[in-house]
Amino acid sequence: MEGEETRGFPNHPLLTSSGSPLASATSTAAPALLVVGTYFVPFLLPILPRSSSSDDHLVIGELCVVSPCVQVDLDALKGTHLGMYEQRNVTVLVEAGESASEVVAAEAYFVHTSYAKA
């Protein structure tokens, strides 16, 4: 989780009350852009703006394991049916010790492409 469901943000209780276990702290393997918008709502942009230094755009988050029921609730919360957010496959680096990371396939919510172009 990279946004509102991360610890300290408003929607984290949805995960804790559902019993979804936190698997690990993570970061994206590739550059991405996390923006905190209006009303303290963080979201990932699907389009990375041109930057002189791409390695400073790795997004730190949390990897959670969610059941199909919780996934449905998250989709409703994120408004995927309204075109507000879309799920995308991402590669994340999971902490696997003091100096090692494991590469893991995951899914993340990105704000819809039309919003990112605005």
Automatic annotation (TrEMBL):
GO terms for molecular function: gamma-glutamylaminecyclotransferase activity. Residues 1-24 are annotated as: Disordered. One of its GO terms (cellular component) is cytosol. SUPFAM superfamilies: Gamma-glutamyl cyclotransferase-like (SSF110857). Residues 13-24 have a biased composition (Low complexity). Residues 6-113 form the Gamma-glutamylcyclotransferase AIG2-like domain. Belongs to the gamma-glutamylcyclotransferase family. This is Gamma-glutamylcyclotransferase family protein. It comes from Oryza rufipogon (Brownbeard rice). The lineage of its organism: Eukaryota, Viridiplantae, Streptophyta, Embryophyta, Tracheophyta.
